[in-house]
């Protein structure tokens, strides 16, 4: 499988499971209509209508497209990591039980891990 060329920062976050600084990502306060895709492999991950403002400093989604995101126990043993189900690229972490949306789920995603396709 061929992947997109990644910058050093994208490699640090997507392939080495890093985290971008809070409130620094281009998609944190971004609310256009469309689909968020994996920066590494272009797989559709999230619809824009699942994005919400959580105040945490990273793009937040309360639902992913079916089968697009995989949950895996984080190396720290306390959190659940989310990765692209197609390429395994690190997206961020998922949190449940915070009561921020009716789905009670927050996918906390690094902006550098995703791209955006505007609704036509």
How is this structure best described in words?
The protein is mainly β and 120 residues long. The chain has one domain (8-118): Peptide methionine sulfoxide reductase (Metal Binding Protein, Guanine Nucleotide Exchange Factor, Chain A), CATH 2.170.150. The chain is built from 1 helix and 9 strands, in the order αβββββββββ. The chain has one helix at residues 8-15; strands at 34-38, 44-47, 51-52, 60-61, 69-73, 80-84, 90-96, 105-109, 114-118. The strands form 2 sheets. A 6-stranded antiparallel sheet has the order 3-4-8-7-6-5. Strand 6 and strand 7 form a beta hairpin. The mean pLDDT is 96.
Summarize, please.
It contains one helix and nine strands.
Mean pLDDT across every amino acid position: 96
CATH third-tier fold name: Metal Binding Protein, Guanine Nucleotide Exchange Factor, Chain A
Q: What's the helix-strand series?
A: HEEEEEEEEE
The CATH architecture designation is Beta Complex
Which consecutive residue ranges, at least 5 long each, have pLDDT under 50? none
GO molecular function, one term: peptide-methionine (R)-S-oxide reductase activity
Pfam families: SelR
EC number: 1.8.4.12
Catalytic activity: L-methionyl-[protein] + [thioredoxin]-disulfide + H2O = L-methionyl-(R)-S-oxide-[protein] + [thioredoxin]-dithiol
